# Entry
Amino acid sequence: MSTEHSHVGLRLLNRYLIDEPLSSGTLCHVYRGRDTVLRRSIAVKAVTPDWLETYRCALHDTAALSHPAIVATYDALEQDGWLYIIQEYVTARPLTTYLRDGVPSERAVDLAGQIARTLAYAHAHGMTHGDLTPAAVLVDRQATVRINNFQLPADDAYFAARASEWDMSLEMLLPPDGDRAPADVTAAGLLLWLLLSEPKGSTQEHGDTGGAGRAFRPDVPDLVRELVRRCVRRTEASAVTNAEMLCSELEQVAREVAKPRSKLAEHTPPALVVARAAAEHEPARSAEMTLSGRRSWEPIVAGDPISYSAPTVPQATETGPWLSSVPTASIAPRLRLPSRPMPEYQAGMYAAPQSAQSLAAAEQTSENTLTNGLWHNGQLKLWVLVAIGIALFVLFFLIGFYMPYRLGG
# Structure
């Protein structure tokens, strides 16, 4: 950028500060700046006085457009004969950056779908783009499309080169009058073709080449090639002539070219196989032991050791080059049980009484339990004596306190 056209350091309306240049063209210069009031980054377009009226008309026509994929315009002002357009600063690269190596077919169809939906929105509001070139399309790190430069003069050199490659007239791409919406659809098809093609001679050509200077890459599916031809060749019977139709066609193609995810080739480690098998088997075993009453339990006999037979884990069946088989494993519960038998208890002590003798024995056992709770080795326990002493003290205190009043009365 020449020194006489540099606007770095310029402050507009005591609010917008121009920091550094980003790009320069015939119509305008683009800078990165700051909004000192809202404290955010902005993009500033400095339009030369020769194109001031053209940009002013474009701003008037597109001011009502509001779409997530359209770069927003915040403000416009004139100073010293220049028009300064304050726009949203987008951290993205122009589509031109990705044309050197191209992008995979699935990604290219996705980008074209985003462009088509944006065009459909603009056409529904009575607006066309008119200059849909790779420089007007920005792509951020999330592969999200942002479109700029609506209603601006077309890049004649770009469209002339595309018309020559496809052996068609320039008027097909840049109609002088009438409805320009089909021309936007053709321009979108050309962008898709640029993403899927490469210069001839760089690799082995494969099938239909499309244009004279470029050829489709070998990995591009036939249905994608056919869609590009239908967008560019508008004279064909099956041509795509409006943005809504292009959106529908791209959605169908996207479903066809979507690749299923490949399964992972790694083998599962043997320890994980055993752990998964144990985790699947353990809940069922625990529920059966806790809730089921169908399992028969042998009575506990005094003096017999308590034993437990743990279930085994099913043998893993997965094998691999380094895993021939997994041995069957047993899981024994770690239980801390009493090591000595409980005295004076027999196997049938918890059985319900079956006769009058059994009921009488149970009552006698209850009485003996109560008596044994008060007496120990033929003597009253200490806490019983203390309770009796306290009761006698309270009794005599009450007698001594109320007796004089009773006698005096």
